[in-house]
Design brief:
By secondary structure, the chain is mainly β. It is built from 1 helix and 4 strands; from the N terminus they run H-E-E-E-E. It has one helix at residues 2-5; strands at 8-17, 20-29, 32-43, 46-52.
Length: 54
Amino acid sequence: MLTKYHPKATILSRMEARAFIIDKERTEAGSRSSEGAVIYQVEFGNISRAWFTP
């Protein structure tokens, strides 16, 4: 699927709150696109968890 549609994500905005980073993203794959949020939890400089919303 990745090689067929060449998906791309664009960060529209970013907010940082202590150990969390929240990105609003637009994802495009082929002729389809959608927007959603991704929440990253950061520990010791590395992403330890990630949540994706529709």
